[in-house]
Amino acid sequence: MLYVSNSFTNNYDLEDADVCFLGVPFDSTALAEGNQRFGPTLIREAMKTKISYVPQKGKNPFRELKIADLGDLDWVPGSYGITSERFKDTMESIFQTKEDVFPVFLGGEHLISLPAIEKMKPETVVQLDAHLDRAEEYQGNEHAHNTWVSKLDGVDFIQVGPRSYTEEQDEGEGYMDTDRALDKIKKTNGPIYLTVDMDVFDPRYAPHVGFPEEGGLKPVEVFDIIDTVFEKDAVGMDICEIASKELNNRTAHLAAKTVLRALSNLC
């Protein structure tokens, strides 16, 4: 007998998968807390301890979906350029192998969203985040965890949860409450890409992030938004910005539940 442990009960080949996981442990620009590179490991370890049944949806993603965990991207510390090229090349290979697979990218700092969106070309991005990430540069760097939104043209953004930004980034909308966000998403046509920065949650739920901001969303609010996104044409997602080396921490567990909630909509 071969006794082994994996993130999932069954890890399928990509050719047969409904969903694929790819870790992108890049964290070279998020300096406040660091350790975002451990996010993929922390989420996978948390998944091992979670009951995968989602009672609110009556679904069990790990039983009802074929999931392929592809491991982690071979990234280059300090080089967004090379890492981005490798990420896009990897995505190209993924979609050549299984065109309609649903990708879940595990970050890593929030800059990982930029190459994913550039490659997948959704019409709309739903960004759950405490920050707008619209800075033009950060410490002289054009590509950073808080600049990636400003690098995307021709994409409609629905930003939910921002509560910390500069005067220059303030376009008058400010904090978008969940009711307004849900209404806006319902009026949006796909394809939609979902990105979840764990600091969108209030720190009492997700304390292990690099840039915590008080006054964040409750899990039930985030889950309602995610369900609404998946009622449309959701084509992929990422979850990022866990900043910790501590296994089985609260933020990693909430990230795992967030992924399970998202995938329950695909069952």
Write the layout of secondary structure elements.
Blueprint: E1 19-24, H1 39-49, H2 61-64, E2 67-72, H3 80-97, E3 102-107, H4 113-120, E4 124-128, E5 156-160, H5 178-186, E6 192-197, H6 219-231, E7 234-240, H7 250-264
Parallel strand pairs: 1-2, 1-3, 3-7, 4-5, 4-6, 6-7
Structural summary, described in words:
With 267 residues, the protein is of the alpha/beta class. It has one domain (14-264): Ureohydrolase domain (Arginase, Chain A), CATH 3.40.800.10. The chain has seven helices and seven strands. It has helices spanning 39-49, 61-64, 80-97, 113-120, 178-186, 219-231, 250-264, and strands at residues 19-24, 67-72, 102-107, 124-128, 156-160, 192-197, 234-240. The chain has a seven-stranded parallel β-sheet, sandwiched between helices. The longest helix is centred in the N-terminal third of the chain and has 18 residues, at 80-97. The relative contact order is 0.20. The mean pLDDT is 91.
Mean pLDDT: 91
Q: Spans of 5+ residues with little confidence (pLDDT < 50)?
A: none
Strand order of the largest sheet: 2-1-3-7-6-4-5
Question: Main sheet?
Answer: 7 strands, parallel
Indicate the overall shape: globular
Mind telling me the CATH superfamily name?
Ureohydrolase domain
Distance between the termini: 31 Å
The number of helical elements comes to 7
Order of helices and strands: EHHEHEHEEHEHEH
Would you give the CATH topology? Arginase, Chain A
| Fraction of residues in β-strands | 15-25%
The CATH architecture name reads 3-Layer(aba) Sandwich
Helix content: 25-40%
What's the CATH class, please?
A: Alpha Beta
Number of domains: 1
Rg of Cα set: 17 Å
